[in-house]
Amino acid sequence: MNRNVLSRRVLAGTALAALALTGCSSNNEGADGELSGEVKVNGSSTVAPLSEAAATFYREVQSGVNVSVGTSGTGGGFERFCKGETDISDASRPIKDSEIEACEAAGIQYKELIVANDALTVVVSKDNDWADCLTVDQLKTIWEPNSKVTNWNQVDPSFPDEPLKLFGPGTDSGTFDYFTDEINGEEGASRTDYTASENDNVVVQGVAGTKGGLGYFGFTYYEENADKLKALKVDGGAGCVEPSLKTAQENTYQPLSRPLFVYVSDAGVKKEQVADFVNFYIERIDDIVLEAKYVPLTAEQKSTLQAEFDALKAAA
Fold first, then answer.
1. Which of 14, 306, 35, 31 is nearest to 314 (CA)?
2. Quick check: 65 and 37 in contact, CB under 8 A?
3. Which spans in the chain are helix H?
4. I want to staple 257 with a disulfide (CB 3.0 to 4.6 A). Which of 88, 182, 248, 294 is the partner?
5. Around 307, how many Cα atoms within 13 Å sit in the side-chain half-sphere?
6. β 37-43/65-69 pair status
């Protein structure tokens, strides 16, 4: 588990409390009447399916509000967010110190919310019939900076003489940050001679079309493409564990299970339609996570968020 995860989960409850205080009156007004205007969301392509599902459900109750969801990567999303260009930033990792400083310099204050969990998934082609599980050390050997591994038999002598072709997220991706931190021991530390894209579908197509291909991305993208990809088990020291809803929620898929975030700006939540959308997002989180095929919040995560939210609504 990333060293920031536990503290971030605690912060999420506090952040929700502040959000509800700011937006509860707007939510009441929005729930009873027609709203209009825009809600601008941008950031992680991993979190985007959650926000897109939220936007789809929200249109059923507030058709006059235009919720746009862009995918410029976690880093690209924070860059726009900290310039005041968006109301909500989707993120597959916590905000970095440098991004916090950029927001502070621009006078942008925000709330952090955990909206789901994920199992970052290592995938190979369906044609790969030799690899079923890789250790963290083997993944590091493949992905560490200046790695010279270009063939599967360099990963394990029992593997065939098959060229290893790598695909993965670009450097603006929170998935890239998380994977490099957990596998290579330093955020951003990675070999550079691979096909990189902020669009996970490019990674899907590359791996699926290459017999010796290997890549990684969020669990949802694997589920959507399970007919043409194979997910590898990962051995983090306690044996091979497959990525799944169960192993991610139970925190047994290590070290690649993680929380997913949305960040809401204080300026954004002052807008009636933004406050209403965020409150809707929280209240319908179970439906949203199910629709987007992510790992639901744990009972503890949900109870913390819901208790804070219910108490504040009752006191409003």
1. 306
2. yes
3. 5-32, 48-59, 73-81, 97-105, 136-143, 152-155, 174-184, 200-208, 219-224, 245-249, 266-269, 272-283, 285-292, 299-315
4. 248
5. 9
6. parallel
Taking each helix axis as running N to C, give the angle between helix 73-81 and helix 97-105, from 0 to 180 degrees, rounded to the nearest 10: 20
Pick from 250, 295, 223, 264: nearest CA to 112:
264
Helices 5-32 + 272-283 axis angle, to 10: 120
120-151 per-position pLDDT tens digit = 999 999 999 999 999 999 999 999 999 999 99
Beta-bridge partner residues of 258: 118
Q: Which DSSP string do the residues of 40-108 spell out, in sequence order? A: EEEE-TTTHHHHHHHHHHHHTT-TTEEEEE--SHHHHHHHHHTTT--SEEEESSPPPHHHHHHHHHTT-
Give the C-alpha separation, 164 to 137, whole Å.
Answer: 17
- Sign, CA dihedral 35-113-56-169, equals positive
DSSP state of 33: S
The phi, psi pair for 139, rounded to 5°, reads -65, -40
- How many C-beta neighbours within 10 Å does residue 71 have? 23
Total number of residues shown for the chain: 316
Where is pLDDT greater, at 104 or 296?
Answer: 104
